[in-house]
């Protein structure tokens, strides 16, 4: 097992990355073609990494369980991507983006990694523009941007409400260029089943062809895991239903430490669940909080009348509405960070002010924005004393230009016109800040095995600011990994092709077959979804938006019981050697049932509140911050990196102490 060494370079923060690139080893261009790299996952992190590494001359094998890299879940990201280009001339800078990201993560991220992220952010925008990504532009033709939560500047570049899709198409086009040249071999509809380690180094993977069921052995000199996050451990989340933890969990079981699993983001702006039989939730972009105002009725009588259909939200006057974020956080208002906005919505709904039938919804209202934009547009068009109807008509057109596809999606799902009636929203599981532990080079504790994007833990701390996920994924893939992986691969230029006939490959392949056979042969009475839903309910009820010691202990015991029942009574129809979606789900849920217990264990050990991890025992009791999350920097300013020891509750914690030399540790305030 490798020592937990973050490999953060010495020297001033602003010089670390430049100096590091100058100091590390590189691979001669003529030697790169003799080195193979496997990339698992083809979202923004994996797609950009595969394209960049192949462009540099490496031979790349890319694996996706979808039928095309274009189907990766990065496509679902809506609101935008952060970069410190200061186009609005409102005081943005590399340092301010760095500061906002560390503060937004509640001071639980590495300074060096976050500063590097801010430093390369501007390059990402230039790269994507060169690829033809159709970012929104202002009246002068320059790239437009908007604000997101947790910041006081405008730095989020966007393509309407489809930013992830457009950025993914940019990375996909770069991949296709290399596929066409034969530098990337694309394995669609293939799922990684295990990591192969030879002489202590990651040397390949075992994959299952999801069409034929064939178990395949693939070798490489290095393996990159870019398989996204683990939010579907909650069953209901905004993630695609296929999103899973399996690739990351498989390398964890082979020796890669898993860091901060309890850091999970609850997004405040999602369409509320409609019933017990729902299988996923839909995100409404955080960008909507730029122009939407969040409120609930002030009076419980009005709440009751709305729930019973006797009143509509539009019947309530301004005085009858509680714009609670503007009231509680006047400096940031509706643009507080996601964790703050989510807890505030839960608090209002728990107090009885939820506006839908389940009591789990608040309003996101665009009336003020429509009026403001309508008046501005009328002024531009020279329309004096416009009628109210004309103002609304003009204002709705402006809002449609900015958010039209999001409004259309909401109306299709809810069957209400959000231009006329406020949207209903409620928090939902969205993103996971925890993940595989990596050092400054993005290498895990397994030599030669790297993790990029949401699959690693590195840049967001305990809470992710909006529009930072796309930034991190593309930073890792385009501008970090292509440099740092060479430092390791420089020692492999004489290694030559790695044979898949080695005993380590055969052993791993046999273990995969045995595990799949066991699932097929159980012939139990309960479906995979039955166990997944039970796990999700325990996770949401006891490891969700608010956590306490008693509930976390209960969750660990209940998850273990569900896992034991799963391995006795799950029924997986069909066979191994064929297209079998239920078998795919079963392998993923088996991993979730192990991760869920480690997740609860990590949350139990961290007896503080920070970011998306809110312990009911750790809140501010008085002063201006009364009721807010209370961090404990004396005892918990560390990364919890867990080593696999078999049963999740036997996992061993290794601490990476976090040091802050360029930022003062202090209570977060958005008031």
Automatic annotation (TrEMBL):
Subcellular location as annotated: Cell membrane
A GO term from the CC aspect: plasma membrane
Keywords, alphabetical: Cell membrane, Coiled coil, Electron transport, FAD, Flavoprotein, Membrane, Oxidoreductase, Transport
Reactions the enzyme catalyzes: a quinone + succinate = fumarate + a quinol
Residue ranges annotated for the Fumarate reductase/succinate dehydrogenase flavoprotein-like C-terminal domain, each copy included: 532-670
Active site: 338
Enzyme nomenclature, EC number: 1.3.5.1
Positions of the FAD-dependent oxidoreductase 2 FAD-binding domain: 36-470
Keyword Electron transport carried by entry: yes
Major subcellular location class: membrane
Cofactor(s) listed in the protein's UniProt record: FAD
Listed NCBIfam families: PRK07573.1 (NF005749), sdhA_Bsu (TIGR01811)
Protein name listed in UniProt: succinate dehydrogenase
Species of provenance: Vicingus serpentipes
């Amino acid at each position: 097992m490798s020592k937990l060494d973050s490999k953060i370079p010495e020297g001033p923060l602003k010089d670390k990355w430049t100096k590091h690139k100058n100091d590390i080893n590189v691979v001669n261009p003529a030697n790169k073609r003799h080195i193979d790299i496997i990339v698992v996952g083809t979202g923004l992190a994996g797609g950009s990494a595969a394209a960049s590494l192949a462009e540099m001359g490496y031979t790349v094998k890319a694996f996706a369980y979808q039928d095309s890299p274009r189907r990766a879940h990065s496509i679902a990201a809506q609101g935008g991507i952060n970069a410190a280009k200061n186009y609005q001339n409102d005081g943005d800078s590399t340092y301010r983006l760095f500061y906002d990201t560390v503060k937004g993560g509640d001071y639980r991220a590495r300074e060096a990694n976050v500063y590097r992220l801010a430093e390369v952010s501007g390059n990402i925008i230039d790269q994507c523009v060169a690829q033809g990504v159709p970012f929104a532009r202002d009246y002068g033709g320059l790239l437009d941007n908007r604000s997101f939560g947790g910041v006081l500047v405008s730095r989020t570049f966007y393509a309407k409400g489809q930013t992830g899709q457009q950025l993914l198409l940019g990375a996909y086009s770069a991949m296709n260029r290399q596929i066409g040249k034969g530098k990337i071999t694309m394995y669609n509809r293939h799922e990684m089943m295990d990591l192969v380690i030879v002489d202590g180094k990651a040397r390949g993977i075992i994959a299952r062809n999801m069409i034929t069921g064939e178990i395949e052995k693939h070798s490489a000199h290095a393996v990159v895991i870019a398989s996204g996050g683990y939010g579907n451990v909650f069953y209901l989340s905004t993630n695609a239903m296929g999103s899973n933890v399996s690739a990351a969990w498989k390398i964890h079981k082979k020796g890669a430490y898993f860091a901060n699993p309890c850091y999970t983001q609850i997004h405040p702006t999602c369409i509320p669940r409609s019933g017990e039989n729902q299988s996923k939730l839909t995100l409404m972009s955080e960008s909507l909080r730029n122009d939407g105002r969040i409120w609930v009725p002030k009076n419980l009588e009005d709440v009751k009348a709305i729930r019973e259909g006797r009143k509509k939200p539009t019947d309530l006057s301004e005085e009858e509405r509680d714009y609670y974020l503007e009231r509680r956080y006047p400096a940031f208002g509706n643009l507080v960070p996601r964790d703050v906005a989510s807890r505030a919505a839960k608090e209002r709904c728990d107090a009885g002010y939820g506006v839908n039938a389940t009591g789990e919804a608040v309003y996101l209202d665009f009336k003020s924005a429509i009026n403001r934009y309508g008046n501005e547009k009328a002024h531009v068009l020279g329309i004096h004393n416009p009628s109210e109807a004309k103002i609304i008509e003009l204002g709705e057109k402006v809002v449609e230009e900015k958010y039209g596809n999001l409004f259309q999606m909401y109306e299709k799902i809810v069957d209400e016109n959000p231009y006329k009636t406020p949207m209903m929203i409620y928090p939902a599981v969205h993103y996971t800040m925890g993940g595989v532990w990596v050092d400054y080079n993005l290498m895990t504790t397994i030599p030669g095995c790297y993790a990029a994007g949401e699959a690693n833990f590195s840049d967001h701390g305990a809470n992710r600011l909006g529009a930072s996920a796309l930034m991190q994924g593309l930073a890792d893939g385009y501008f970090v990994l292509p440099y740092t992986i060479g430092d390791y691969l420089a020692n492999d230029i004489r290694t030559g092709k790695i044979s898949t006939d080695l005993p380590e490959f055969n052993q791993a392949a046999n273990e995969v077959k045995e595990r799949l056979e066991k699932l097929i042969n159980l012939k139990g009475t309960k479906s995979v979804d039955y166990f997944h839903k039970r796990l999700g309910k325990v996770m949401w009820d006891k490891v969700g938006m608010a956590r306490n010691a008693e509930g976390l202990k209960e969750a660990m015991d209940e998850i273990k019981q569900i896992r034991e029942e799963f391995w006795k009574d799950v029924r997986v129809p069909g066979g191994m050697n064929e297209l079998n979606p239920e078998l795919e789900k079963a392998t993923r849920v088996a991993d979730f049932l192990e991760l869920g217990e480690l997740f609860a264990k990590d949350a139990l050990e961290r007896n503080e509140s920070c970011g998306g991890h809110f312990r009911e025992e750790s809140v501010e009791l008085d002063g201006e911050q009364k009721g807010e999350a209370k961090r404990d920097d004396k005892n918990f300013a560390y990364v919890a990196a867990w080593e696999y020891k078999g049963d999740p509750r036997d996992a061993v914690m290794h601490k990476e102490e976090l040091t802050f030399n360029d930022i003062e540790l202090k209570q977060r305030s958005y008031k």
